[in-house]
Design brief:
The complex is a heterodimer of chains A (about 525) and B (about 300). With about 525 residues, chain A is mainly alpha-helical. Chain A contains 22 helices and 2 strands. Chain B is built from 11 helices and 4 strands, in the order ααααβββααααβααα. Chains A and B meet through α1, β1, β2, α12 and α19 of A and α2, α3, α4, β1 and α9 of B.
Chain lengths: ~525, ~300
Amino acid sequence: MAATEAIAASDAPRSVMGEALRDAGLAGLVAFILFGSLVGLVTEPQQEKLVLTYQWEYALGLALMVAAVRFLLDVFVWRRVVPVAAALPQGLMRYKRALLTALPALYILGGVLFLIPSFREGFGALGGSAGFEGEWLSRITTGLGLVSIAISGLFVLITGMLAARLVRIFVSWTRPQAGQAQMALTPQSLTRDLMSELAPALLIIALVLPLLVAGPQQRYAMDTAVRVVTMIMLGWGLNIVVGLAGLLDLGYVAFYAVGAYSYALIATEFGWSFWVCLPLAGIFAAFFGVMLGFPVLRLRGDYLAIVTLAFGEIIRIVLINWQSFTGGPSGINNIPQLGFFGLPFNRSDTGFHAFFGLEFNSVHRIIFFYYVILALALFTNFVTKRLRRLPIGRAWEALREDEIACRSLGINTVTTKLTAFAIGAMFAGFAGSFFATRQGFISPESFTFHESALVLAVVVLGGLGSQIGVVIASIALIGSSEFFRDLEEYRLLIFGACMVLLMTWRPRGLVSTRTPSAVLNRPKPITADIVEGSRA
Amino acid sequence: MEYFLQQLINGLTLGSIYGLIAIGYTMVYGIIGMINFAHGDIFMIGAFIALAAIIGLASIGITFIPLALVAVLLIAMIVTAVWGWTLERIAYRPLRTSFRLAPLITAIGASIVLQNFVQLTQSARVKPLPPVVTGGYTVMEGNGFSVNISNAQLMIIATTIILMTIFSLIIAKTPLGRAQRACEQDRIMASLSGVNVNRTISLTFVMGAALAAVAGCMYLLYYGVIDFFIGFIAGIKAFTAAVLGGIGSLPGAMLGGMIIGLIEVFWAGYFNTAYKDVAAFSILAIVLIFLPSGLLGRPEVEKV
């Protein structure tokens, strides 16, 4: 008996290994068919004729890679044939502790790198002293440069969190609230649960960002920051529609386009100021939202998605073809740019720099635009947070969870959806008119389906309904696309693949809280104290 | 009159292509209730594989056109079916029990991946193919305008009719078709009765992708120019066709495809070309408002 058991035990892993091998072989075969058809065979136009080029070696290499990855995953992760997999979590825990102890050191390093620019440059030049030459040296220098930027970013973020925590402690001193103990100023109270300060820390950093990035790179950094904040604002706007009301809108960029064109047309035709046009653009966009929403909001979710997608395309086609009104494919030029309370950002003697006695610098304009979009985005966030506590906001969230239950409770689902649609569209309109005044030039090129997909990706990857999730996802998305600038042509491929992988890995998004915003008082534990308390 | 007839023939040809793609949407929607957003890109991949197959076969010396076309069709169908199967396996199966929007998001991601993958590997330039199927017949002649039907158009319409018949028979008569209809009605009950649900859904994707590959071949032979972006617009229009005909219904998809093709061709022929897509999309919105279950679809009963 014992002998047969031993044989069975030794047999079992082998047959599992065999299955893993067979799986890997199948995966390789499928991959070979897939890659062989599109990578192995390339049709190229040569001298008015298409010629087939064979690249079997690439297809074979890719297929072998897929088979190998599949085999390794099978053995170490899925089936866990090899005991290494079992030991891995423990090992990771040990590394986590080591990482936690290394964090203060990293923080100090970040501070040094951030505060003393020459150190940052020296950090990048480390590759040269390690004996690298030529192309590799430049690669390592850029790589180390990016690492030093990341470490300094970490330093800034943690400093922001500490600052936010300090502010909280001082507030608790000056305005003690009933039932809440005063926080002591000890290292423990400063650092405990620091992640909860993420949102205030990001706000503090956002407010002082132009000072943080001062230097030769300021212009580029602020330009990127404006793009990130615009994306955040669009994400917050779409979050009302998708995250709160649960309506999938694939044509969000259409409202962005409506806002941009309203501002551009009104400003160029009538010469009205930006601050007059901004609400108008919002109203126009909301009007379009109602116009689209009124007939189609009775539809079920998936149909709605396709109709909004079609609507986005219709708007784009109309923008391209209605030459006399929109300028057609060449767009609208010379859109008036926003000035600082009437002071233009140019070299003239009545400009911003002359009034404040500064030296002329084109960065001033970008910094001003940054604060404008930041204010608009914060306004969006503020309104959303307030709306979520109103009856309409609660109705949105209820609608997202269960439409039939909502209808049974007497909520008018069509008007509720319509409000969400209109308000989401309005914020897109605001962002659109900001885009028009920043660029000074717009064309239908900027409003393709790809933009809608990008905004939707931000909302979904951030976690539907989560405000901070949108911020993290926007920074990650635009930051990574700046980071991988060299891989320009692979960017969208990687982006799409990340969308698929993230969704299968965490279907609820990075920040996956979906608790309702409105709760009656506090969630109370049901214990004996309640009864005793009521008696007393 | 002659102009009208000519447009009718062109519209039916275009409609056949849309109908073939629409079947893929309607089958997948019927069985798992999701929009396979990447289906248009599967159609595009089918066209690229067909292009490679045509040139490959010509380079090894197969010049007898009917034989070559059948071979091209089979190669494209098989290889594209593998793409469809992989797509379902990677992007949709892990999310089958997740919330409703999740598979739609991965579908958008998959669509972006497929488009950019083809753009990277096959370059972004358009691929012109010299006409393979040439010749045609003059159906009618009168007041200086002759109505022509080309061999390519005849072939497209005939292939579509044959494939439609075969697939209708598969759905109606075979055990696979029975399993598909069972899964469509109640997936859990079907699995309790011994239907392999995973296999059935995979085969649905395979069938849809094979038909999309045929549509890709036809598109390539009819227009002679393809690029990596053809899948997007064709996909939306085919989906419109599926909704118009009543999603979940095979004859409905074909009928919807024909109607969309006719509308588009007539709009371009009698009004202007620029707004033909707008016309097709407006039809979608109007149909959904007044006839939410489409022309041949069953009205939906909401279960609580």
